[in-house]
């Protein structure tokens, strides 16, 4: 048996006033099992709120690690930190993408409320409205049925920060800009220009649909690599992955670039730049992690996100 002493670096959290405690574990006990034992004594201190680490070490221990491999047979003191109230990543994504799905119909169908006048929607506005709703409905579908998350939860307070990007930029700012009278069917910005040319609009639609379907395809490939309820990582192959480590980000950026070209909207441009910039950072980090984890097995010649450039 391994004897563990569970302490805290400072005062015990409000959800576990009885700390420190002593636990006994067998050779097969994992970090996740220890968290469950702590939660059994302090029900409000559920496992997702806990971060277990070695004494005086900030790095958290992976849930799948066996205690005996980490500490040895004699056991040792472990410190637990309260990460605060948690919310599942699935819920976070549903809230993030749900914002634009509510905001865009409000601006599109109630122009009097925002602009003080009715708006005769142009074909361009109708296309963009459809693109936005379909994009975020797709993201909600993927969140429920496709994505598998390596981390189950995140701090509840972060949901507001994460949602602001979508609710403010692709929600309020984009909706207010593209459904206003400037883009209406009677506006000089639209009439007599390429923005009312049906050939132009349908070409843009084709590129946008290609990007969206390609993005979905890469998400399905990534799903197939990870068994349910696991953190297994493997090298992705197939459509899109021949040239890029993160083709899903490339295709999503392409879809938003199409909306920028179609509309010339400042709000669309700002959102596209901000979101693409964030995806570039994620892609570079994932690309480096792939090469570090798989070494020589990882295909040479792949770019992080943009073929032949980045």
From TrEMBL:
Transmembrane segments: 256-284
Membrane topology, record value: Multi-pass membrane protein
Compartmental location: Endoplasmic reticulum; Membrane
Keywords, sorted A to Z: Endoplasmic reticulum, Lipid biosynthesis, Lipid metabolism, Membrane, Oxidoreductase, Transmembrane, Transmembrane helix
One GO term (biological process): very long-chain fatty acid biosynthetic process
Gene Ontology cellular component terms for the protein in this record: endoplasmic reticulum; membrane
Keyword match Lipid biosynthesis: yes
3-oxo-5-alpha-steroid 4-dehydrogenase C-terminal domain location: 153-310
GO molecular function: oxidoreductase activity, acting on the CH-CH group of donors
Pfam families on file: Steroid_dh, TECR_N
Family: Belongs to the steroid 5-alpha reductase family.
Protein name, UniProt field: Steroid 5-alpha reductase C-terminal domain-containing protein
Higher taxonomy: Eukaryota, Fungi, Dikarya, Basidiomycota, Agaricomycotina
